[in-house]
Design a protein that fits this description.
The chain is of the alpha+beta class. Strands 1, 2, 3, 4, 5, 6, 8, 9, 13 and 16 form a 10-stranded mixed β-sheet that branches. Helix 6 crosses helix 7. The protein is globular, with a radius of gyration of 19 Å.
């Protein structure tokens, strides 16, 4: 019988976590699996819990939360024989949506019963791992603002985005990739391992987590009246056709900027320096998929 460790972030998104144990009992195949459930109380605990699970011989470790929780658990499992499951309960759930894991908790738990495991790529930005997207510019700025408000959830993220949109200024960058170098202003730069930020906003529609490449999307400054059109393209998987977006695939990319500023890893913000180096790490994480 396989032991499954569920690591639950109780403050992810806006979902009720009190019924989670009942959902596990009702949906996880008890003939195949024995379950253990742990709840985090602080940032960084999911990583430590996952490492402890591996030490105790548990090989199926499930992140229950948003992309930040997935990031912590994933970091603990890269280049190990552990496999990560994902139960999406966050604000965006970009990785889960890319992998087509159901948003309904019970259905997501039942994915584990199938026992299907894929080897997936991940990315690093200045040696810090990310599994869905990393970025700088406007989306990182919004992520930082969002991390400081009292309530999570998609609606509050949209409110934060709209409140900051009209005052944010594009920044100049020097970007080196695929034996070329460009200098340009950008509203945001996203480095994507998966296809979307979350909530089906596809910033990198062609991203493939098994191709050994990262997809880069650079959004140049654009007139304010174009914003609704850009939004439509994001949600219809057509952002690549936008005249203000430059998209390409890389194994490695270097980005230089004027000063240290915020970046994000799977939606979680942090400050990094003037020089950023991102590269792909192929086929290094086992993930339980539908």
């Amino acid at each position: 019988m396989e032991k499954v460790l569920f690591i639950v972030n109780p403050i992810s998104g806006s979902g009720d976590v009190h019924s989670f144990e009942t959902l596990v009992k009702n949906n996880l195949d008890a003939k195949q699996f024995a379950s253990e459930i742990k709840y985090t109380t602080a940032a960084g605990e999911a990583f430590n819990m996952a490492k402890d699970g591996l030490t105790r011989g548990i090989r199926w470790i499930v992140a229950v939360g948003g992309d930040g929780t997935v990031n912590e658990v994933g970091k603990a499992l890269i280049n190990t024989d552990g496999a990560m499951g994902v139960i999406p309960r966050g604000s965006g759930n970009g990785l889960a949506r890319h992998l087509r894991i159901p948003m309904a908790t019970g259905k997501a738990i039942r994915v584990l019963n199938l026992g299907k495991i894929a080897m997936l790529d991940y990315g690093v930005l200045n040696d810090v791992p990310f599994f869905c997207t990393a970025g700088l510019g406007f989306d990182a700025y919004v992520g930082d603002k969002f991390s400081h408000i009292g309530e999570r959830g998609f609606v509050n993220y949209v409110k934060t985005t709209l409140s900051e949109y009209f005052t944010y200024k594009s920044k100049p960058y020097k970007i080196s990739f695929n034996n070329q170098e460009i200098e340009k202003e950008a509203f945001l730069i996203t480095i994507a391992n998966a296809s979307q930020w979350g909530n089906n906003a596809f910033i990198a529609p062609e991203a493939n987590m098994q191709d050994g490449m990262l997809d880069v999307a650079i959004l140049s400054p654009f007139p304010k009246y174009v914003a609704p059109s850009i939004g439509i393209r994001l949600f219809s998987k057509k952002i690549d056709s936008c005249r203000y977006v430059q998209s390409f695939k890389v194994k490695k990319i270097t980005i230089e900027r004027a000063a240290p500023e915020v970046v994000h890893f799977d939606g979680e913000p942090t400050i990094m320096g003037e020089k950023l180096v991102a590269e792909v790490k192929p086929q290094a994480l086992k993930v339980i998929i539908p």
